Amino acid sequence: MIVVYGIKERLNPIKAQLSDILHDCMKAVLGMPEDKRAHRFMPMDREDFYYPGGRSGAYTVIEINMIEGRKIETKKALIKAMFRQVEARLGIAPVDLEITIKEQPAHCWGFRGMTGDEAALNYKVDV
């Protein structure tokens, strides 16, 4: 699951395109299936979204929640692909993008009435 935060005036107009970019990267780098898009957008009022100096109103935070098991090189490749694609396709500079990967053991996930370690996934985690 991916959660995206940004100032609503900047985030709302690009949500669909950003979702496509993120999912394209997840498919290309992690081998995620087409039907495994799980994105949540959190458009925020400017007064509720504090961010570091040197950033613009386009500052966007992307939190990637996933089952642990991917190699360090794979996770780094995913982050770098997202930086490249977001800049190329949306014009958001890497300085205005923060990407965090949060991993949890499979048994900490619950979906389709079971835990992640009980599910038969149609994609690999150990990539």
Describe this structure in words.
With 127 residues, this protein is an alpha/beta fold. The chain has one domain: Macrophage Migration Inhibitory Factor (2-Layer Sandwich), CATH 3.30.429.10. It is built from 3 helices and 6 strands. The strands form 2 sheets. Strands 2-1-3-4 form a 4-stranded mixed beta sheet. Helix 3 links the parallel strand 3 and strand 4. The chain is globular and about 45 Å long. The chain starts with a strand and ends in a 12-residue tail after the last strand.
Give a brief outline of the structure.
The chain has 127 residues and is of the alpha/beta class.
Annotation keywords:
Tautomerase/MIF_sf; Tautomerase family protein; globular; 127 residues; 4-stranded mixed β-sheet; two-stranded antiparallel ribbon; alpha/beta; Macrophage Migration Inhibitory Factor; Tauto_MSAD
Read across the widest sheet, the strand sequence of neighbours is 2-1-3-4
Fill in the CATH topology.
Macrophage Migration Inhibitory Factor
Structural class: alpha/beta
Overall spatial form: globular
The total count of strands amounts to 6
The main sheet comes to: 4 strands, mixed
Q: How big is the Rg?
A: 15 Å
Distance between the termini: 17 Å
Number of helices: 3
Topology:
Layout: E1 2-7, H1 8-11, H2 15-30, E2 39-44, E3 60-67, H3 72-90, E4 97-104, E5 110-111, E6 114-115
Parallel strand pairs: 1-2, 3-4
Antiparallel strand pairs: 1-3, 5-6
